[in-house]
Amino acid sequence: MEIILNADDFGMTHEANLGIKTAMEKGYCSQTSIVTNTNYFDEAAEMAYKYHFSEKVGLHINLFEGTPLTGGMKKLKKYARSDMFDYRPGIFRKIPVDTDIIGEELEAQILKYKKAGFTLMNIDSHHCTFYDIPVLFALLPLLKKHKFYSVRYIGNSYFNGSVRREIYGQYWKKKMNQMHLRHVNYSSSIATYRKNQKKKNPRLIKEKRAEVYVHPFMTGNYLYDNYTGGSKLEESLRKAGLHKKKLITSRQL
Question: Which Pfam families does this UniProt record tie to the protein (predicted)?
Fold first, then answer.
């Protein structure tokens, strides 16, 4: 099985930037995705070019943390408080409202990504933001307009046995498929990947390619994965057998 091993949250914090730079240098991850609306974006961009992995940087759209790039987004109480993201869509979670304002924010993040010179044109989202209908409807035309090549598909853990989730998950897939974006059918964290390995879950086992996402950060001289409760990244990769897999980027799909 070939694996896209993506380091999420590049640009989120200084510690994340150091962790992802180290993970890319050591070959633990095959690509990363950057957050554009934080104080650490410029540092992340500089690192990507300095350490020669700028061609492996995708976009991590974010409506959860930091400051919106657009004024309209700051006025949406479902998304922001005191000029900072505070994502609480509530009942609007399943209603495609405010897509014009959301679209302006998403496009501002896309343009900042492209202005930095990144070319991977792979897109994913912080805390699965683009699963929500308002965000999905705002994003779809932008994916075509800005010629994105690939997307992180809806995560395996989304399908938890709920009929409602199964129906909506298939709808989400249909809308994304209409964009003709390259993707793998399976994506998850390391912990979920290991769980599905042990269970021999057909959603994973039948696939020739999969995506696993990690959240590296550095503390002192130690490299951890923030998404596994602070486990050391190399140890987590070894326990999952991912250190033996062939790593690819979304460009190779």
Answer: YdjC (PF04794)
- For residues 166 and 150, what is the distance between their CA atoms, to the nearest angstrom? 23
End-to-end CA distance of the chain: 13
122: which residues sit within 8 A by CB, 6+ positions away?
Answer: 31, 33, 58, 59, 148, 149, 150, 151, 152, 249, 250, 251
DSSP strand E in the chain: where?
2-10, 31-34, 57-61, 80-81, 84-85, 122-125, 150-151, 187-189, 209-214, 216-219, 222-225, 231-232, 246-248
Structure tokens at 54: 């700028």
Instruction: Specify whether the CB–CB gap between 10 and 35 falls below 8 A.
Output: yes
Instruction: Give CA angle at 214 (233, 53), nearest 5°.
Output: 95
* Stretch (H or E) spanning 97: none
Tokens 């961009």 sit at which residue?
45
| DSSP track, 172-195 | HHHHHHTTT-B--S-EEEHHHHHH
CA-derived radius of gyration, the chain: 17
pLDDT digit string, tens, across residues 62-108: 999 999 999 999 998 888 988 999 887 654 555 668 899 999 999 99
| Domains within the chain, CATH numbers bracketed | 2-62+101-252 (3.20.20.370)
